[in-house]
Write a structure and sequence with these properties.
Layout lengths: L51 E6 L3 E3 L5 E2 L4 E5 L4 E2 L2 E3 L6 E13 L6 E8 L2 E10 L5 E13 L4 E8 L5 E12 L3
């Protein structure tokens, strides 16, 4: 083994790439206690929480009382992998892993007979086993529901938001927000 001691390694004039290792190199080891200072742009290590998306519905979505209804979204705030379409997030190829999701809705029921409202994440068309619920029972009641969920997903899996509002008057969602991102593992 040879040892090279120096203070600076730089490219030759006219060159823009510097390569450490080569044909026979498989690892570059950085000893414990060494700090790597990045004054440029990093790529290929570390991580980012993508794909990521955030969407909302700016209007009112009417529902049928007691019917589990897929929430619709008309505005994308961001969608880093173009993975959100038709009110559904679909995991892109090669992006399986753990994901964190959040949802927020304002539920509307215009009668005193409204008793429950639900918010649930669906994975591949099935409920995920947990939901947020509120009991109302007041005339013209608006309620906020917030829910979060962590899911293990594979490429092609999809996630949607469903809600239920019961009542004999007008029922629906007046505002809905939905977002999520891949968790760095």
């Amino acid at each position: 083994m040879s040892k090279l001691e120096t203070n600076t390694i730089d490219t030759i004039s006219g060159s823009t790439n510097l390569t450490l290792g080569g044909t026979n190199a498989t690892d570059i080891t950085i000893p414990s206690g060494v700090t790597i200072t990045n004054n440029g742009t990093q790529s290929g290590f570390g991580g980012v929480n993508t794909p990521a998306f955030a969407v909302y519905n700016s209007g009112f979505q009417s529902t049928t009382s007691n019917a589990n209804t897929k929430a619709t979204f008309d505005t994308e705030v961001y969608d880093t992998a173009s993975a959100f379409a038709s009110s559904t997030f679909t995991v892109p190829s090669g992006q399986g892993g753990k994901y964190y999701f959040y949802a927020w809705m304002v539920y509307v029921a215009t009668d005193a007979n409204a008793t429950t409202q639900h918010l649930q994440f669906y994975k591949n068309g099935s409920g995920t086993g947990g939901y947020s619920e509120v009991y109302a029972g007041y005339s013209s009641r608006n309620n906020n529901l917030v829910s979060i969920k962590s899911l293990d997903l594979s490429a092609g899996d999809y996630v949607e938001i469903y809600g239920t509002v019961n009542g004999t008057g007008t029922t629906g969602f007046s505002v809905a927000h939905f977002g999520g991102y891949k968790i760095i593992e």
